[in-house]
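User: Can you help me understand a structure? I only have the sequence.
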Amino acid sequence: MDNEILELYEQVKDKLTMEEFQAKINDISKENEDLGFVDDYYAAEQVVNNILGASKDDQKSNGEILDIGDLEPGSQPAIVGMINSISNPKSFKTRKGKSGQVCNMELKDNTGEIRVVLWTENIKLLKNFKEGNIVKITDVDIKEGYRGDNEANLRPRSTITHFKEADLSKFPTYEENITDIEDLVPDTKANIIARIIRIPTPRTYEKDGKEGKVASLELKDATGEISYTLWNKNVDLIEELGLDAGDSVKILGAQVRERNGELSLTHWDGRIIKGDFDVPEFSQEFIKIGNITEQSNIAIKGVISKLQDVRTFTRKSDGSEGKLRNFDVTDDTGSIRTTIWGHDTDILLTKGGIVKIIGADARFDDYTDSGYSLNTNFNTQISINPENLSDEELAIFDEIKQKVSQIKRLSEVEEYDEDGIEVDVIGRMFAIGEINEFQRDDGSVGYARSAKFSDGEGRVNLTFWDQKAKQEYKPGGAYKIENAKVRLGMYEVELNIGTSARVMELPEDSDQARFLPSFKTIEAMIYTHKSISDVEEDDENLIVMGRIIDASNTREFDRDDGTKGYVKSLEIADNSGSINVTLWNEYAKKDWNVGDAIKFQDPQISFRNDSLEINVSRSTSILEPDESEINDLPTYDELKESIYVPKTIEALEDDDRNVRITGTLKEVFGNKILITKCPNCGNTVNQSSEDFVCEFCGEAVDEPKYLLMIPARLEDDTGEISITFFDNLAEELLDMKKEEIINLTDDGSDLGPMEGRIDDLNGLTVEVITNVSFDDYNEEIRLNPKRILSKYY
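Assistant: Let's start by predicting it. Here is the structure, written out as tokens:
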């Protein structure tokens, strides 16, 4: 039991035990379990009110009903008054998340007035009552309201009845005076009857760290127009009452405000009644799109023929973030680009949907085909798929919808012979390249990314630009692309996906995705799967899979334009053999784990360093194989046994790869273990006096890069061979980091304390995975170790 309920118990602890109190709470909660607003605190409050109220009732001699001006806090068996106003119900949630409703009445007699609060179950009683009725309400709690005045709260079992025995002289006469809009007076409450001519999109705002919402309806009667503002929960009345432009309404108790010399109405505790009231009809004039000139406050109807994504921007005035969205609206006379802003961008728009826009401004626009564009504002009403369209309008719009919603087959797109045509297509995305950054002529940074797209009948290349390039796309996923622009490439048609295009992933069970072949089917149609031993130089449309058996560290380098680049090497293997892989940039910065299965879609196969290798190009996708593909690959342990073949030194050949050699180190050459390199060109630099100078670049080098190198001879029972350990392997051999070694030596020329450490390597037995190459200078084969498996004395 929480502290708030314990505080309530303190008021009645002399009349019942804690157990009895809890039991009564449980009874009320169970009795009202279908009411959203009844929680334990409310039930406890009812128990206390029932007990304290009963005590006061016992003191009343004849059960008389008090005048409103004489009411005091506590339980009252009944109150009587004339209904002066009734509010529209508002929805709410309890602290426990249950839903409920609340509304207010104002009761009056000649002695005063009181606000009456009705809850979910009481509200249904109001259907038989209206303003001016004299009513009796039983079983109420009088308490202090939020304004400091008394407030009457109904209980779940409260009743409301017409009080037929009322002495009418004790109650004021209700007068429902309707005021014309032109006669409204500031700082008063007024009743009006008017027709809604516009309902703009509700907007949110922030005040004191809390978010609220607001909507301003435009009203009109025979004498004028005025805005009527709904705040927060009252905004929900638009939907709950089904309000729309053209509806006639009676508004009771609206507050009249004046600001900057202009009057407006605000809804608070008043009531909106939708009905067939005597108010002039209003007919909104709509302009044909082909007749638009530069003008304000116009209304159009049409079909959304082109739709762009929501874009964000930074306002220059205060640095805040704004949102906008562009779309084209088409009728039988033409099209116009329309821009919506802020909260209007949250409206659910679909290409091919019918839209009604009231209160927008048209302006000259040199960048549109029509020469004009449409801008919405705070008071614009935007209605999607509006009702009450004429049969003629529906026929026109249906014909436009058929044209703009047409999906093009990629086999058709492949035959296009004209640039710039915009098409909508559906297909599967595959061979998704990495993001490439470039600099435009104006100095701005742009982004591009390529992919391939197929619907099973045809295939086109895609090029994504800027924000579209930076989005994540799922290889094999089904996508719908709107407003893709045809570009005639050198050999085939391409589609440009820029700012005005939209890319939407389709659920696999959607109607649009069901007709597409599976990703595996499309792969089989386009690509050839090859084992590693079967790949050939310049193979195209290829898929190669394997397990990673080796991964180098990522290396950073400087490009010619001054930007940073990244490169990393992998080695992968399958049942047939192994091959090196070169990764660039984002792929190079990713962590790749030895033993993982990996799949390359559309890689470049090139000949380098006397062997074939995979080069990941812009059009290459790196995928994770599916379960069946993984099962076809040998395990990492199986690969180690089949690829890392143990050999003796005597049996080595100059093209051996990934052989396993065990031998003892001798003649470890430690006279210079650090080689200084130019950070710009990578050539060896020599020290001149106190400076390093690169002979290739011809410039002094402030901070050279260091290559750690330990040459030695490796000996087993069958012979000996030269071997050199570089960088990571040298660090592993010495159990030291390169930075430590640099600090302990004089740039590698004076070994200092490292001399003994290097001498100790003589006699060390090592087991290594290594490639074999022929040393042309010494005319002998030598070892290029890739990994140290073990070392011991």
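Now, to help you interpret it: Residues 54-62 have pLDDT under 50 and may be disordered. Residues 565 and 777 are 33 Å apart (CA to CA). Let me know which part you'd like to focus on.
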